[in-house]
Specification:
This protein is mainly α. The protein has helices at residues 2-17, 22-57, 64-71, 75-86, 90-108, 113-119, 125-136, 140-146. Helices cover 80% and strands 0% of the residues. The longest helix is centred in the first third of the chain and has 36 residues, at 22-57.
């Protein structure tokens, strides 16, 4: 919606200043939309590939750099693609995936919170608990008791 507002303002400015004819302006808009569609398709492909890597390696210590190297793009471009497609960074996605996996383990196992934190890829159970609380609104212990 914000992009459309900016586009409308830009078109109005161009037409008011007489920089291009109406037909030229429409042609430029169509070309820009086509570029955006192509880029979006490429971003979707890269994000899907990165997500598969994250799912496969989520229990390991992986970084944004590791994910970017796997899909052969820069870390910044990886983040741009994730934000464009999912509205979150690759690390936010990784954390969400890990918390999702932890919720399954909390539900179906009697393992300790610390063991589950390690199993899903968090090296520190305190950090795991903070991330879990931020994403679910409750601590892992409270979540387990609520089941």
């Amino acid at each position: 919606e914000e992009d459309m507002t900016r586009l409308n303002r830009g078109v109005a400015t161009v037409l008011e200043k007489g920089l291009f004819s109406l037909d030229e302006t429409v042609e430029h808009i169509n070309a820009a939309l086509e570029r955006k569609r192509r880029l979006s398709g490429e971003a979707q492909r890269l994000v899907r590939k990165a997500m598969a890597f994250i799912h496969e390696h989520s229990a390991e210590s992986i970084s944004r750099r590791d994910i970017a190297q796997h899909v052969s793009i820069s870390e910044d471009h990886l983040t741009f693609c994730f934000r464009q497609e999912l509205g979150k960074t690759p690390i936010e996605y990784l954390q969400r995936y890990r918390v999702h996996q932890a919720r399954l383990l909390l539900k179906d196992s009697e393992r300790s919170i610390g063991e589950i934190a390690l199993d899903v890829g968090f090296s520190d159970s305190g950090y795991f608990s903070r991330v879990f609380r931020r994403m679910t609104g409750m601590s892992p212990e409270t979540y387990r008791k609520s089941l």
